[in-house]
Amino acid sequence: MIPYTVNIKLAARTLTGTLNLQNKTAVDWGWQGLIAQGCHSSILIIDPKTAQTIQVLEKHKANVVKVKWSRENYYHNISSPYCLRLASGDASGKIIVWDVVSGTAHCEIQEHSKPIQDLEWLWNQDASRDLLLAVHPPNYIVLWNGDTGTKLWKKSYAENILSFSFDPFDPSNMALLTSEGIVFITDFSHAKPPGSAGKKVYIASPHASPAHTKPAPAATPAPTGAKKALNKVKVLITNEKPTAEAVTLNDCLQLSYLPSKRNHMLLLYPREILILDLELSQTVGVVAIERSGVPFIQVRLISSSAFPSIYCVSWQCHVRRYTSSSYSCLPPDPEQSVQELVYDLRSQCDAIRVTKTVRPYRMVICPVNENNAGLMVSDGRVMLWELKAHTGKAAVNPSSGLSPLYSPVSFCGAPLGPNQKKIQDLCLNSMIGQTLIAGEVPPPLSNQQEVQLKFLLTGLLSGLPLPPFAIRMCPPLTTKNINHYQPLLAVGTSNGSVLVYNLTSGLLHKELSVHSCEVRGIEWVSLTSFLSFATSAPNNMGLVRNELQHVDLPTGRCFAFRGERGNDEPPIEMIKVSHLKQYLVVVFRDKPLELWDIRTGTLLREMAKNFPTVTALEWSPSHNLKSLKRKQMDARVAMARQTVSDAEQSSVDSSVINLLQVAESKSETSQAISAREHFVFTDTDGQVYHITVEGNTVKDGARIPPDGSMGSIACIAWKGDTLVLGDVDGNLNFWDLKARLSRGIPTHRGWVKKIRFAPGKGNQKLLVMYTDGAEVWDTKEVQMVSSMRIGRNVNYRILDIDWCTSDKVVLASDDGCIRVLEMAMKSASYRMDEQDLTDPVWCPYLLVPRAALTLKAFLLLQPWSGTFTMDITQVDYNERGEIKGLIQEQLNSLSNDMKSVLQDPELSLLQRCLLVSRLFGDESDLHFWTVASHYLQSFAQARQLSVSTAEGQAPSEGSQASPHNHLDICHDVLCESSYFQKFQLDRVHLQEVKRSSYEHTKKCADQLLLLGQTDRAVQLLLETSADNPSYYCDSLKACLVTTITSSGPSQSTIKLVATNMIANGKLAEGVQLLCLIDKAADACRYLQTYGEWNRAAWLAKVRLNPAESSDVLKRWAEHLCSPQVNHKSKAILVLLSLGCFYKVGEMLHSMRHFDRAALFIEACLKSGVMEANDSSNILFERPLLPAFLDYARLLRSLGLREGAALWASRAGSAGEQLMEELFQGEGGAPEVILGEEEVELGQESTE
């Protein structure tokens, strides 16, 4: 007997369908490059590059309402590896943190039983990467440890919390969107819950706000469009609760801090996007749509250094991209100039038809490259859009006012070489050049081209339609069909179409529109064709229109199998195809059955009217085909021998004749032979009938009386010598035909809906479907193998069942999903790294931690032995072949463009580091190398211009980067001082225009004084009306500002007054006075003493000279490194902006960031801001050379001996011992090719 084996390797998976309304907000695109999406109680993991579902997570019992990928803003090493970690919250209040690769739950968290409102990983701190903040309804925010599930603290608020947003520039600031307004929290900390209840403000609806317009002269044209909308929303945030008539509180759909500008917030309304300046609590920008336009439903913000942008999605499935033109003055008349934060519509995708059941739900943006969008539609579709840049002038009206966009002159943060390869659509920064400072429109450089942006649909995942479903797996794999077998699953749907899925990939193979009403059942008649039937709704007589269609898959041809029959007759209950696919039985509800010949499409017998009513029917697996074939073969051989003469027979080898006969017989027997087959059925009394069919003859066989212990028989299954009957009371009766024994088992599960035997010779497993679940039985042992019950294991009802292989079952359920499960029927989650995907997926997170770090090092340390390669086997890498193979698969999955850029000798080390950090979605690396690359080039340029820049002193104004090459304002105080000052002046001018109350005017005057704009500040102070209580103070202040002299006595008096004010709690007023007498450096020190570190840094950037500013910022960096703050990653970025490169290298090494430290020092040497042979610099000798040595040790631990030898050789005498260890017993160390810098470095260290 042939041993029982598994038919075909199929992964457990879930085919998902339409989304539940509660899934609307459950989608997230992580830095890891994958999209997570909730679908009922499951979570899909989608690879957007190949549009494949690569994992389905199942453990939630309720609908998933929130998903959030963990952030990657930490240094990655073996102990903190690249890992796919996801948090999900459901409608029952449960939060699960997943290990996505293995498909297992890392920890489960439960606080209350209401739906989770919002989730966010705390990313803006270095203390821990496991902190997860959640909003538990109605009014609690709870901080959890996402690794252990421990509750760290809990805080309640007065109102119901809908969502929250963190200030990306200050981790202690947070805004809660509540049912009544906004609560601003300024003392958020992971260490303890916020102490105060926060500052509560109310949102006045945009349309209800009073307009604040100055009386315009008659000649001025009436404002239109966005300006008109802007006037409507002058006053938006108030401290008083608005009246019920004036406001609709639920209008605000979304709240978010702007990631591109500090102290700005975005509020989304159905017809406006409002940009608020939080210092003024007033609108400074608006994106409005026409009254007849389609309302917004969601926005996504990005902080690209090319253009701060907003992606929006509206009800008509429009994805729009707006870009900021920064602060711009629209009219040229200075008296009437209204400065606005303007967002221009740059691109929108094609509209998609929206119906009652098809609505756009959510949009996600790739956080790494910011030029890819995913749109989730309620019917389960995921549409993947890519923003493409096309060179060429726009064909739009020049009066539209849109400034042109130009391609950048750099790639990966560095100027593009003349022959350097680049990928234009790598990210938004590589598509569009930098933002221009307001009011300046320099001509484009000679190598810049004007670009237009367009959305391109690059991927589409479509889900299953609405249930119910009828499913049927194609015939099983056999030795005869193994060469052309495909595991196809036919799914009949409620709209009459049949979907055919390939279960190897989980992708839709074909969609066929077959019927006009709901498909009730499918039966395959070969590997490439099937029969399906559908019944229309009954008429008054209870009669229906039956449709029985024969479908040929390769051609898609359908024809009515029963011809003209089918109108006004009782509904078809079931169709059953015989074991050899020769005959078909069609069973009706109140009409005798029909017997058809499938091969000829002819009706063999329509049973008489007195034929018993059929309740269950099954064909026997036994037949006489083999004996018929043997008889036919003997007859053919005899005929062949008669036709050949005696003389010829002697010359022709008889074996050849036999081969020809066999070949001929094989091609004809299937048509020529009609084998005898049997079927059994039961009537309403439980009596079993046996009928034989052979050719055109139908014979009635034996009848077996009903079993008294069984109720009405609902279904029958037959395999080998085992016959199983199931009844409406939940009893299973197992018949052993050989031994003539029967055994009844009461399951107490109610109606047995369906039973099916598993495929495979000798495989006697049985799948049983009940109204409340399913079971798998072993009919040999007559015992249950596994069970699934609604309410106990799962929360969905099973609609249909089948086997897809000998050890896997497929279940259709009422949540719109079809699940392929192991026989245990536990979960459809699986190990992602064991799955065979149709298209290879680039995701280093799928590798084991050691392999992911090796892959990163392999890409960073090109070329290897002087050769650029994408073949891991070409380097000296001591690792198992299996791991090497997985790394090579990742390398092979890179696009050809990416491979050619990575192998380009013109690609500098800084560009390579930035490119690899983008490829890996490494947030921490990307931020570090963006700032490091900018300032290394900036200081190197200054050095070339022979501008003396001592360690820690920022470059003077002459060496500051040009407007074409500045660090964008999203980096805030890390930007160059000149650009930062310019931005702050533009901002305060805008605030000045928008002011609508005395409070606003006072704030503007204070800001102008700090910025040194005394003349304009005096004008504002003198505007105070005489009936204002502050009239006298403001008048005196105006006098003071205008009469300040640089004489010693007045300065010392003002300084004394300022000091006293600060000592008595009036810090802001004292700082203003110090700034008036040009003592801003003292003001910064006072601010830092009183804990206002961010304010001190701001003041240093706008008022101090480079040396003084550098001192203030260095003190800030020391504060950030202190144990109570522990934000060293931010401190390193601050030191980079000051040019303290030796200090940065030392800090990176002390933090054990060995690869980043070594590569950074190498980049410093190559750019010329560090010198290897600078013997006077002890800093270089002591901490920086060991960075090379420790990096060499790290590479050795990964198995990269060649890389380890290279970096050990750069570490001078300290690396010699490591070199000996590396090549012990191999005849000494090999020669290592060194560049000029490395030779100098080696000589210096040996001295």
UniProtKB/TrEMBL annotation:
Compartment(s) of residence: Cytoplasm, Cytoskeleton, Cilium axoneme; Cytoplasm, Cytoskeleton, Cilium basal body; Cytoplasmic vesicle; Golgi apparatus, trans-Golgi network
GO cellular component, as recorded: axoneme; cytoplasmic vesicle; Golgi apparatus; nucleus
Ranges for domain WDR11 TPR: 986-1166
Boundaries of every WDR11 second beta-propeller domain copy: 486-826
Name of one Pfam family that matches: Beta-prop_WDR11_2nd
Example GO BP: animal organ development
Residue ranges annotated for the WDR11 first beta-propeller domain, each copy included: 22-313
Keyword terms: Cell projection, Cytoplasm, Cytoplasmic vesicle, Cytoskeleton, Golgi apparatus, Nucleus, Phosphoprotein, Repeat, WD repeat
Name of the featured protein: WD repeat-containing protein 11
The encoding gene: wdr11
